[in-house]
């Protein structure tokens, strides 16, 4: 039982880990002994996030790159493999949001959201798989969203990307399983992070979450950590192609 959730000596890349859900998942996995490589675009924020984890006695290092720069993403995975000799877990979590009524959407904004939230995940999953296949093992975990399952107005590209991610995760799961690699998607509900600041600060929306969610509140980022540890560890060894919804019961309520 004791090593069921252990991530001792695992080399783990978490994209979008300078803050929010990525940081929370990285912290939970580092607490289980993993070496976490924190990605984001801003080197300074990443250094501070890695220092915070190291101060707790955890193993953490920064890897600054823009996931929508596909050449930089490819190089970043190669660098990790060069430095550590392997990549055990890839948590592909970096994401952005763009909220506008349909008639105000620009094509470029749609493309930007899809590049970051979907295409970057394809590129990084492929590069991670290139590192994992020769070793016959690995875990790929995407951060999807309940917005890939149900809908709200204004988040057209985001919902399309997250639904696309869920579909892609399934094809990767069936293709990579024979190579010893599992692929799963975590679908968070409403978490209090920077991405959601405008929603938390909007009294109407804030109240909607509290009354709509059966648990009656927003989630705290650290409440996603257990899902990542589970899917990355021995405890999740037979879980593949799954969408793990972490939403306080929101999408199952009529
Ligand atoms: N919060 C929620 O309720 C919720 C619900 C469902 C799904 N999600 C998903 O969870 C993930 C994390 O969201 P969050 O709420 O934690 O958001 P957040 O607080 O805004 O954090 C986003 C993280 O991604 C990084 N990032 C953004 N664009 C990037 C890029 N192009 N390249 C590399 N890193 C990038 C950010 O760092 P820099 O800006 O410094 O690059 C930051 O570390 C996203 O995929 C989001 O869609 C969130």
Walk me through what this model shows:
This protein is α/β, with parallel strands linked by helices and 254 residues long. The chain has one domain (11-192, 221-246): NAD(P)-binding Rossmann-like Domain (Rossmann fold, 3-Layer(aba) Sandwich), CATH 3.40.50. 43% of the residues lie in helices and 15% in strands. Strand 2 (35-40), helix 2 and strand 3 (59-64) form a beta-alpha-beta unit. The longest helix is centred in the middle third of the chain and has 26 residues, at 107-132. The N and C termini lie far apart (37 Å). The model has no long low-confidence stretch (mean pLDDT 97). The site of NADP nicotinamide-adenine-dinucleotide phosphate has 30 residues, from helix 1 and strand 2.
Q: Give the proportion of residues in helices.
A: 40-55%
CATH topology name: Rossmann fold
Low confidence ranges: none
Q: Please list the strands of the largest sheet in the order they lie side by side.
A: 3-2-1-4-5-6-7
Shape designation: globular
The secondary structure category is: alpha/beta
**CATH superfamily grouping:** NAD(P)-binding Rossmann-like Domain
Q: How many distinct beta strands? A: 7
Number of helices: 8
CATH class identity: Alpha Beta
Mean pLDDT: 97
Largest sheet: 7 strands, parallel
Q: How many individual domains?
A: 1
Global Rg: 17 Å
What percent strand?
Answer: 5-15%
Summarize the structure.
With 254 residues, this protein is of the alpha/beta class. It contains eight helices and seven strands; from the N terminus they run βαβαβαβαβαβαααβ.
What keyword list fits this structure?
alpha/beta; seven-stranded parallel sheet; 43% helix; globular; binds NADP nicotinamide-adenine-dinucleotide phosphate
């Amino acid at each position: 039982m004791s090593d069921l959730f252990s991530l001792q000596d695992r080399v783990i890349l978490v994209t979008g880990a300078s803050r929010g859900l990525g940081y929370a998942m990285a912290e939970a996995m580092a607490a289980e002994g993993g070496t976490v490589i924190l990605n984001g675009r801003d080197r300074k924020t990443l250094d501070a996030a890695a220092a915070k984890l190291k101060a707790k006695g955890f193993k953490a290092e920064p890897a600054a790159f823009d996931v929508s720069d596909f050449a930089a993403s490819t190089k970043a995975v190669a660098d990790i493999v060069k430095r550590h000799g392997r990549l055990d877990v890839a948590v592909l979590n970096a994401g952005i949001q763009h909220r506008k009524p349909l008639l105000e959407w620009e094509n470029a904004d749609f493309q930007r959201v899809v590049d970051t939230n979907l295409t970057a995940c394809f590129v990084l999953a492929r590069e991670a798989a290139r590192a994992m296949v020769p070793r016959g093992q690995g875990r790929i975990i995407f951060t999807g969203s309940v917005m890939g399952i149900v809908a709200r107005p204004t988040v057209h590209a985001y919902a399309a990307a997250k639904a696309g991610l869920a579909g892609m995760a399934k094809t990767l799961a069936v293709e990579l399983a024979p190579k010893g690699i599992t692929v799963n998607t975590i679908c968070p509900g409403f978490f209090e992070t920077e991405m959601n600041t405008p929603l938390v600060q909007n009294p109407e929306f804030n109240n909607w979450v509290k009354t709509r969610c059966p648990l009656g509140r927003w989630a705290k980022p650290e409440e996603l950590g257990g899902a990542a540890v589970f899917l990355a560890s021995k405890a999740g060894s037979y879980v593949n192609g799954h969408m793990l919804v972490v939403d306080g019961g929101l999408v199952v309520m009529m």
